[in-house]
């Protein structure tokens, strides 16, 4: 019983660890791409501003994964990454579709 | 895992801090030493003496040597003597992979200089942990990211930050470790946040090329063309007719007037009609890192062709962040400030690591359990990573003086012995009871620091002819005193206080 509980806890922690590091990375990647795409500046400036800020987003995403009230909610960043990636990479997407 | 926010942050801080605290301590300590990388280089190559030779004359002598010995290899690189680096060094071929020779600026003849890992070893270890370059950059980046998370979670745990900052209870075992950890952490919080964030930013486009992919389809060459105005340069060998190289003196004067102290120059297609001379400044003229902001001259007419390029505000922002990390600005007072902050930061990480084991030991004492193998391993790793790395770092200084000057692959042997020392410290920590192991290793590091001037006296004819070498040894002496004091305190009063207290009293505080 005790062993089972410990295994459960380890699984929950492992899940949050992955959610933070990998899920957080996917989320940050998409958010940075989207930000760079929508910033109304020259593309050098947009790239730099988005990249300089991106590690702040990543840090907060990891904190979120450990602070979220349930193990499932810790993974919230991944579904959020989909619309962000669409914004970030829409020129490439249009090209693919055309 | 139903917990409050603070509890989950405390858990994250404890375990993230322990596992990543080990590499982080190594990164922090070697980074602190790398603040004085060129001074350590100078100490480790005592054959190089500072000579009162004008820069233009030194450059002419370097060119004469290159024309004589390496007329067929190009480009030529010349590292000029400057405030932090007294040597004149020429490289034929690529600056990283070409053939380098140290020259006597007085005569222009090659100097026999011992091959040494130098202070550059600490610098490279700092961002690669001596792993293959790219793998190391990724590992160090991960450690940096986790420590950023540990810093933020640390702020959350210590919401009563300022109250705790004024709390210091010495000689109270765990309490003192906690207070020291908190005081150092809070006092230097701005420094820690700055140094970790800017450190990650340096390789930001390697870690997270999202914006590069989105805006440039990952084409970094195009990005760099827009990022900074590109100076004229050559690809491949020259087909231009022969032509004599311009006199470098006036070019250097012009460049120095415009950019401040110079660090060196490179000449591509030397002796040809299309020769180019690129003059570099020392990195520390301003906060923003000035790497790549050079002046380029025509190598025959001496006409200024380009530079130094102006930076866009966004590029300048990024360069200021780089510069804040590289600590090349502000001269020696700023270097010392970074060094002291780095030492306090290292002490904060070390006290956090110690705190972890002190807490565990106390828990076992209360529960009447014996320490398991896992805990013994954690304890040994703590000792080896903190005290053992100290022994290995100062050991590198000793190895530098003790290995024969003419040994082949000498720099490689220095590095190998550094790691041998470090491994031995782990073995020692595993075999000895923990308090003794701490004392003996800290004591050994202190003794090696305090004995360094004696070693210099025994191995060199004029050990302190150069003021930089004398100052390096004085700084090492200071570190030795600090280490000795720590060794004396460990296992002294504080630990005895803990042992004397009854388990019940312990339970109340813990």
State the total count of DSSP E strands of chain A. 0
Give the helix tally of chain A: 4
Q: Uncertain regions of chain A: pLDDT < 50 for 5+ in a row?
A: none
SSE order of chain B, one letter for each helix or strand? HHHEEEHHHHHHHHHEEEEHHHHHHHH
The pair of chains with the biggest contact is: A-B, 41 and 37 residues
Distance between the termini of chain B: 22 Å
Number of strands of chain B: 7
Oligomer: heterodimer
Q: Are there runs of chain B of 5+ residues with pLDDT below 50, and where?
A: 496-510
Radius of gyration from the alpha-carbon trace of chain A, in angstroms: 17 Å
Helix and strand element order of chain A: HHHH
Question: How confident overall, as mean pLDDT of chain B?
Answer: 86
Q: Quote the beta fraction of chain B.
A: 5-15%
Q: Work out the count of structural domains of chain A.
A: 1
Main sheet attributes: strand count, strand direction, barrel closure of chain A: none
> Strand-residue fraction of chain A?
under 5%
Main sheet properties of chain B: 7 strands, antiparallel
Spatial strand arrangement across the major sheet of chain B: 3-2-1-4-5-6-7
Q: Kindly state the mean pLDDT of chain A as a whole number?
A: 88
